[in-house]
């Protein structure tokens, strides 16, 4: 049993984690009963939309030992991805011909970066204690990562349901090591500093944050542009504006992000000028170009078909121009019915603007 081992203390693990590029690290053992009840209620209300995987694993999501047998402690880590030199969000959203891409997706896929570092952290712990049971997770399995991070003292869950740190904001990724080591836990972050602020609720373009701490994913632009495989509901299309991959509005307006730290990770540097890309330029990519330009990027996960779907909606929302109409008509015969549908909608929206002019 691991109880007989000389275990590293939390500060040792923190030092190893920081040496690997994590900005913060904490340990939790606390139960997730309240979070499990919240998850079940959220699922029962259908707020997960088509994300069937959210309900597929039963209680494994909220009971770590069921997901990975033998788990008694969870090491949570965070890594900053904020790029202060990126084109200002307000500037991009105010330019309807520009393409807005969520800040987290401007660089290399965080799944790969964090997973590799977590493996190195596990190796370092193994050097100290010998072989031990563990499993690394980076948004890749049924894990309540924000609740675990909160219990490990890394922040509180805000009204927009993202984790917030009072000295570092919320522009960071999370990862976990489930372990069979009985480590001493960190104090949970048991204070919520959102107060009476409702900026995230007020700014949400689709009003997906239906109440504090309640997000209806079916209305969330990140869900609609990334998770949803089918057709984007017509009534929501105009609300997407020029957001073609994700949405950062709720984090952008959060006052705690004035404390956000700039990332030091080279892997998270902006690729291919995606922070200043133009809709028509991206719409002109063929599938080979899409594959090449999104290699190693989280954007690749949506595939070329949904990429065109999303941009078509943004072009429909853009001001009328002959160039836009021509670009859309060039895609009318695309082999994908999904693309055809959204292109047809965009052409109709463009022509309506021309008629109203």
TrEMBL record:
The kind of enzyme this is, by top-level EC class, is oxidoreductase
The cross-references to Pfam families, in alphabetical order and at most eight, read: Fer4_16, QueG_DUF1730
Q: Name what cofactor the protein needs.
A: [4Fe-4S] cluster; cob(II)alamin
An example GO biological process term is: tRNA queuosine(34) biosynthetic process
Q: Which residues form the active site?
A: 139 (proton donor)
GO-annotated cellular components: cytoplasm
* Residues where cob(II)alamin binds: 61, 139, 163, 174, 222, 247-248
| Annotated positions binding [4Fe-4S] cluster 2 | 204, 220, 247, 250
The record's section on Gene3D superfamilies has: 3.30.70.20
Q: What is its EC number?
A: 1.17.99.6
Which amino acids does the record list as binding [4Fe-4S] cluster 1?
194, 197, 200, 254
State where it is primarily located.
Answer: cytoplasm
Tell me where it resides: Cytoplasm
Report which reactions are catalysed by this protein. epoxyqueuosine(34) in tRNA + AH2 = queuosine(34) in tRNA + A + H2O
Which PROSITE patterns does the record cross-reference, listed alphabetically? 4FE4S_FER_1, 4FE4S_FER_2
- Paste the cofactor note: Binds 2 [4Fe-4S] clusters per monomer.
| Pathway listed | tRNA modification; tRNA-queuosine biosynthesis
Q: Where in the numbering of this chain does the 4Fe-4S ferredoxin-type domain appear?
A: 185-214
What NCBIfam families does UniProt report for this protein, alphabetically? Answer: tRNA epoxyqueuosine(34) reductase QueG (TIGR00276)
Cited PANTHER family: EPOXYQUEUOSINE REDUCTASE
Subunit comment: Monomer.
The Swiss-Prot or TrEMBL record describes its family as follows: Belongs to the QueG family.
Q: What is the official name of this protein in its record?
A: Epoxyqueuosine reductase
